[in-house]
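Table S7 (text form). Paired inputs.
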Amino acid sequence: MSEEKHHHHHLFHHQKEEEKPVESVEYSEKHHKHKEHLGEMGAAAAGAFALYEKHEAKKDPEHAHKHKIEEEVAAAMAVGSGGYAFHEHHEKKEAKEEAEESHGKKHHHLF
């Protein structure tokens, strides 16, 4: 065999730790804000759909059970989306604090 370097092709291209691009703190803050808004919109849409299905259950007694199940699923999705938005809000807040610390605006005191 020759002494050529063999390049292995992998399904997922993993980068080594030192090769990963450095993400700016400002980008991170905007990224989490965007995801927070998506979570809020998802919660609003799922909540609206749950209310619609509740109305349909009353309006269509023949298929009320189906509408009740869809209402409950939509309500669960609204809660999940709200939780995701809350999580992203927390991440955005951490990114903002990290940006302030890196620019010397905020100092943590231990005592």
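Next pair, protein 2 of 2.
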Amino acid sequence: MRDEAVNRARGIFTVLDADGNGVLEEADFHLLSSRLEAAAVHSTPAQREAVRVSLRDWWTALVAGLDQDGDGRVDFEEYRGGVLSPQRFGATVAAFARALAALGDPEGDGTVTRERFTALMTAIGFAPDRVAAVFDAFGPSADDRIEATAWQAGVLDYFDPAKTDIPGDHLAIPPAS
């Protein structure tokens, strides 16, 4: 796996490990869902439920596909071995990407403001400066909005190790020196 892809995997693992205990557990996905719901103050109940369901399904797919020792948790080595595999997890990541973009576009006009993007991405656990760089890389409009579909596609790109020079690369944790 390319260093860039490993850095993405490390970054994703870090934010999915919402309680910071070094392993992914079901509770992390509940905590992440709660944080997103709290940040999505303008979203509808259906949009919040879609995020809850997508995160539940993502956890279910991860533990079923990556928990090699059967302990009901996924450590980084287990995670790294298969997470950036669009054919294995593409459907669950796509469902999350759709739900996340919808939270950012509660009016359904097809755009996401910088404020909402920042609130949601920092609720996930990404650093504000990196979130700002990602938003800028999407090429916001004059009124500081990005297309919700571009964000959705960007999430999918981030999970595809074949993709390079994508906006989400601004989120990746740089390699240790």
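Residues 40 and 130 are 20 Å apart (CA to CA).
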